[in-house]
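Quick bug: Cytochrome c biogenesis protein output formatted oddly.
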Amino acid sequence: MRRLLYLLPVLLFVAVAGYFAVGLTRDPQTLPSAMIDKPVPAFALPPAIEGVPGLSAADLKGQVALVNVFASWCAPCRIEHPLLTSLAREGVTIFGINQKDKPQAVARFLTELGNPYTRIGADADGRVSIDWGVYGVPETYVVDRDGHIRYRHVGVLTAKDIEQTIRPLLREVAR
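Here's what came back:
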C-alpha cells in the first residue's frame, strides 16, 4: 500500500507530461472548425470605410472567394497583407471582415498597405466573427460558389500556405 502511495505522484506526473507532449505536436493553425462545408452564417455588415461597400452573406454566393478577418491594430495582419494584395492583383476575389476597429484606423491601414478587398464589412462588436467561429485575427476562409465555407486558416498566411493550400483549393472549388 505504501509503495502505491509513492508511485501515485510519479504516475500522475507521467500522465500529465504525456498529455502536454501530445498537445505540443499539434499545429495550432489546424484548429477544427464546425463551419467547414456549411453555409456561411447569415449576416449583413455595414461598410468599414467610405467608398467601399459593406459585406453580407448574399455577397458570397455565385463566386469563389477568400474572406479575410483582419484589424488595423493586428500586427500579424500587416505581415500577411502584401500576400493578400498580390492575390487580389492576380484576380482572386477577397472580401474583408474588419473586426472591432475605427473607420479612420481602417482607412489609414488600407491607405498605407493597399486595399485588396472588394468589400469590407465592419464587425464593430465582433458578433459576426463569433458566428464564423473566429478565434482571433487574422483568419482567412475559402468560400465556394454556393456560399459554403471550404477551408479555414488561423493566423498569418504565408507564401507556403498560399502555394500549398489556398491556390490548389481555389482551383478545385472553381471547377
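Actually, after a second look the formatting is fine. The CA atoms of residues 6 and 151 lie 49 Å apart. Closing.
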